[in-house]
Amino acid sequence: MKERIILHCDANSFYASVECAMHPEYKGKPLAVSGNPEKRTGIILAKNEIAKPYGVKTGEAIWQAKEKCPDLICVFPHHDIYEEYSKKLHEIYATYTHLIEPFGIDECWLDVTETAHLFGGALNLAEDIRNRVKTELGITVSIGISFSKLFAKLGSDIKKPDAITCLPKDNFKELTYLLPVSSIVGIGRKMKVHLEKMNILTIGDLAHIPTEILEHKFGVVGRELSLKVRGLDYDLVKSMYDEEAPKSVGNGTTTIVDIFTPEEVRNTIFYLAEEVGRRLREKKLLSSTISVTVKTCEFCYEHHSNKTTPTNSTKEIAENALTLLNSFWNYSEKIRAIRICCSSLSSVQIKQLSIFEPITYKKSSLSLALDILRAKYGESIIKTGSLKSVSFLR
Ligand SMILES: [Mg+2]
Predict the structure, then answer these.
(1) How far does residue 218's CA lie from ligand 1's centre (Å)?
(2) Domains identified in the chain and CATH numbers
């Protein structure tokens, strides 16, 4: 097998960097993206490079962060804008290869084996990406270049922000084997504890343990990990452009205050159905099973599903979800979170014609028209009548 050239590009402090790129007045100041202290989401979600030396940590409460860094600017998250920046990053990457596999909103693997020579080699190509992201988007990426996904990802973590690290096959061991095992993607806190008990502290320790021992202890995961850290990793970069059809499309929310009345529940369901319907239409899919999960303020879950006629209309999805919810919910308890999910997906082309076809068609065309408006002018350009008063939603 020809040696592969894989890049892992990781946008640094993504949310906070996008906020700084959007607002030059924040330049040079410590900034965090956070929830609202009055809501349940009053924690730090991300911080910029300037806030890091103060010890501001993701996941801590805003008041704790401000104690360490009194000048910390806290801004609300703007997920629509982060999605836009993520798409812009993908557009830049797509000029170098079509083999792009996103990993979360701000990370991607790129297989440039067949295209690197067109850009003067892998390092020049990576330099090009690094510079373009900085000048065109005003944010930075750190890039790892290696022969496998695992070491490319590790490379992007070694030097950051705005840096490139090469871990080639002939000396990746010297460059990585002294690093702690927890540097490897997929080794979480629990596994780290198990490994420590086996006296496996570094990547090198892991590579020197016989595969059978790791397989015996951790199953397939242990076996794969053992081979990967030795450089025997043939995991392909799965192109986002030939993505497999999803099995389900869902959306859920934790409300700011517990919701109670049928009207509040109805509004929440319509709010959630907007996104589910849009994603189904975008992927040209119809769903014929609706599921609703309700979490009460006592943290009890209720989950129910129902068969429906195939649809991707926001209104029908919302109505189906509401009918299902009303069949098991009696509004005697407060709700903390709701999730709706559409499954049993089929492609639009094979939709069965029904006597209600003209009505469904009209609903779908309305939904499609709304999608086009939103894609062109942004999410907030138009909301359906049912979403007029959803102040309790995030
Ligand atoms: Mg990142």
Answers:
(1) 28
(2) 1-176 (3.30.70.270), 249-387 (3.30.1490.100)
Rounded CA gap, 250 and 291, in Å?
A: 9
Going along 112-215, which residue ranges are E strands? 141-146, 164-167
Block residue for tokens 């509040």: 264
Ligand 1: centre distance to CA 12 (Å): 4
Structural contact between residues 241 and 102, judged by C-beta atoms closer than 8 angstroms: no
Starting from the edge strand earliest in sequence, which strands make up the sheet with 73-75, in order? Answer: 44-47, 31-34, 73-75
107 catalytic? Reply is yes
In the sheet with 107-111, reading across from the earlier edge strand, the strands are 100-102, 107-111, 6-11, 141-146, 164-167
- Average pLDDT along the chain, 394 residues, taken 10 residues at a time: 91 94 93 78 85 91 92 91 95 95 94 95 97 97 97 96 96 96 87 93 96 92 92 88 76 76 89 91 90 81 88 94 93 87 81 42 62 66 53 48
* Token output for 358: 């003209």
| pTM of the complete model beyond 0.70 | no
